[in-house]
Each structure stands twice: as C-alpha cells, then as structure tokens.
Amino acid sequence: MSQYNIDEDIEEITGGEFERTTVPKSKLKGWKSFLGMYAGEHAAGTEFMIGPLFLTAGVSAFDLIIGLLLGNLLAVLSWRFLTAEIAVKNRLTLYYQLEKICGKKLVIGYNLANGILFCFLAGAMITVSATAVGIPFNMEMPKLTDTTPNGLTWIIIVIIIGVVISLVASKGYNTVSKAANWMSPVIVLAFIACGIVALNQLGVKNFDDFWNIWGEGAEPFPGQIKYTFWHVVIWSWFANAAMHVGMSDLSVFRFAKKASSGWTTAAGMYIGHYMAWIAAALLYAVYLRSPEAQGLLSNGEAPPVAPGPLAHNAIGIFGIIAVVLAGWTTANPTIYRAGLAFQAIIPKVSTFWVTIIAGSVATIAGLFPAFAMKLLGFVALYGFILAPVGAIIVFEHFFHKQSGIIKNYAKVSNTSFNKSVLLAWAMSFGIFYFISVKFDVFLSFVTLPAWLLCGVLFLLFSKLFQKN
C-alpha cells in the first residue's frame, strides 16, 4: 500500500484530525499556515478587551510600551523553543501525549478542566462580537461590573453568533486555518485604522503627545488593581501560558514541518498583543474623555468597556465588521482546542460533535459578560491552573534520560493513573495559590515558580515511584 493510501486510511479512521495518531508527512504544513492563524487569533477579540483594561489598571506609558515589548518576546521564545520543538518531535495532540504520561483516568480531569476553560475564553470572544452586532439594534451594552445577561436582544445575538462560530470550528483545523487567513488581514487593517483615527481624535501631533496619553500612569478604576512594569511584562508573557509553557499548542504545531514555524507566533504577539492592544487602548482613551465616561468616573463608577461601540465610534461600519470577525478568529481555534480536549474523554465521538458540544458551552458562557469584563484576571487564573501540567511534558522530554525515569510511563507500565503527575501538580498549585491569596501576590507572578516546581517534583516523584 502506498504512503498516500496509508495516510488516507488514517485520516478516515481519525476523522481527519489524527487525534490519537502521529500526523503523517503528507499532512504537514509550512510556516504560512501558522502565520495566518496566529496573526488572526491574536489580533482578535481579546485585544479589543485587553487594551482598554490596561487603562483601567492605571498603567504608565513606559510600563505599557516597553513592558509589552519584553513580555511578548518571552512568549515567542516559549513557543519556539518549548512548544514547537516538542510538537515536531512527537506530532501528538496535548491530550494524547498527556494520556501516555499520566494514564487515562488522571488525564480525564485535566481534559475536562482544559476544555471548559477554553470554552469560557471562547465565550468571552462571543461576548465581544455581540457588542458589535448589537449596535444596529440599539442594544444596551454590558457594563464593566455586569455578570448576567441584560436583556432578550443580548441573548438572541449571542446564540446566533455562537452557532455560526461552532459550525466553522467543527469543520476541523484546515477550515479554522483558512478562516483565519481570510479574516486576519481585515482585522489587522481595522486595528491600524482604529489607532490612527484615535490618535487624531486625541489630538496627537508627535511622540510626546502619544507618550502623554498614559504619562506616569494613574490610579486604577474602581474594582481594578494597579499594574506596574512587571505586571505588564509577566502578564503579557503568561497571557497565553496554557498555549506555550502549558503545551496546549502541541495540538497545533504537530502539523508543522519544522520547529522554526514557532517563530510565526511573533506575528500574533507583535501585531496583536502589541500593536492591537495599544490601538484598542487608544480607542478607550478617546471614550474616557467623553462627558458620559467623565460622569461615571465622577460618581465613582468604572466606564464600560464595549469593543463594538469603541470601534464604531472610530471607523463606523468597518469597525462593527472588524469586531465581529475579531471575536470569531479567537473563538474558532479556541473551540477547536476545546473539542479536542473533550474528544480525549469521549474518543468514540467524532470531532464534529465534540466541537459542537464545546461551541454550545462557549455560547452559554458568552451570555455572561463577566468572562469578558474580568478578562485580565480570568486569563491569569486560566494560565496558572493549566501551565504547570505543561511542565510535566517539558521536563520529561528534556530530562528523562538525565533523571533516569521512564518516558511515557503510563503507556509503558499500562497504568491508568500516574500519581507522580497528580502529586506534582497539586503541590505546586496548592503552595503558590496559597501564597497568592495569603500575601496578595499577583497571580501571574507565581505562574513561573509553580511551573518550575511542578516539573522538578514530577521528576523526583517519578524517580521514587518508578523505582519502587
């Protein structure tokens, strides 16, 4: 049988996504596929929320501009030298790789948590798109403090958007990648246009005027915490902690021909998490000068962050279209990843149906504005929970020979529950979450220590229990 026919058979068995097999050579993709996907995913819906939320945290110009420059570089390096490096060696999804290390029973809990958290993030992006779609219907926009749906119009719009996004994501990686490639140039152009218009509305004539928009920073809005330089650096590094140091993007980069495709994440970081965050912050800066926003601030209330109206105020109908597309390009791959997580729990169910399940959960989450309005805190928590599990894959991959442990221990020993993994994650999570809560330490500050401790403990416990 030819290699082509073998690949066709594998694709038919696995539903075309190779969830429990290595990706065959004939299905590998060049760097351009990843460039479009990362540029689209990260110059997207979250950016319309995160940029303004930095302003609500009172950041200074230096903290924002230089802090984002450094934090995003650290994120790119993590993707390139950890995630992509391991992905092209094994060519397995995160979930199947974990199953081989942890065992089927233990990985079910992780997959469930991972899938649900991905759904909540996708739900926040559905919320973002809904703020744009609702403009022609004079829909009341959610406030920064809102947690529940504010009306029937909101519910109907969120459900319609959720259905469309879920159907696109259910078509698989190729469709998700193509959608990103088509949409990302439009979104990037919109962010650039929004930034230019906002600068004009703010009366910026030179770099000093631009710098003075943030100046030396300000007091945070009611209910927000103050962000310093290191808050910006560490938060922007670990904003996608679950994807890079948490190894979730093994599921994406397993399709890459070379590990060097990991450099394409720079398109997402510096177009999306740099230019787009700053452009979105400028839109919010314009709104903050309005009588409405000033009135809310004088009453001790935080002005709302609604991406749709902010973009519409700058570039009209194009702004509405851009926000809708931006929400889609983040939600699509996120729902795709969530579907893979659920499929690891119920492998007999097709990729299409598990993605529809994920999309349904995301749509329900999208009805509740709290996930979008508290996005900075949610992303920090999300990364802190999931990132340490990625350390188990990283430390096993790079140090299993030096530490003398068996690689893929659960598969080799035919065990369904590797207690070394659970103990390592539980201890690292428990210790540093306690430190964060007890001493009021910013959660992103303890993500790296928790990640490192989890990896070291995994090696120590594996050495102990495998010997016994």
From TrEMBL:
Protein name per UniProt: Purine-cytosine permease
Origin organism lineage: Bacteria, Pseudomonadati, Bacteroidota, Flavobacteriia, Flavobacteriales
GO annotations of cellular component type: plasma membrane
GO molecular function, one term: cytosine transmembrane transporter activity
Tree of life domain: Bacteria
Alphabetical list of Gene3D superfamilies matching this protein: Hydantoin permease
UniProt organism field: Spongiivirga citrea
Record-annotated membrane-spanning stretches: 61-82, 115-139, 151-170, 182-202, 227-246, 267-290, 310-331, 352-372, 378-399, 420-436, 442-461
Keywords from the named record: Membrane, Transmembrane, Transmembrane helix
